[in-house]
# Entry
Amino acid sequence: QPVDRRELDALRWAIHQPQVVADWLEPELFADTTARAAFEQLMASSTFREALDGSVGPVHTLLERLAVEDANAEGDIETVRARLVVNMVSPAAGRTSAIPVGSAPSGHGQV
# Structure
């Protein structure tokens, strides 16, 4: 199944202009395991080249593909940033609210 376009967009920005997502984007916001692993690889590396060289399989393929795709800036950078936040946080919040109370990981969702 293909990676959600919103997750691909966030990864593109993490590759091409990391300062746009660096202070808020977290691995837990990615539903797709390959996209999450690609983001974690980017976070663990000093440069994109290091991330690409240290990746294998589907993660390598995804990073390689996104490296040649432009991050699409429609509007000023703050508008882009706001769109990225909404596109990543809203689906993650929906996934979190679908977890029944009592089944959340230890320390989360307990009153």
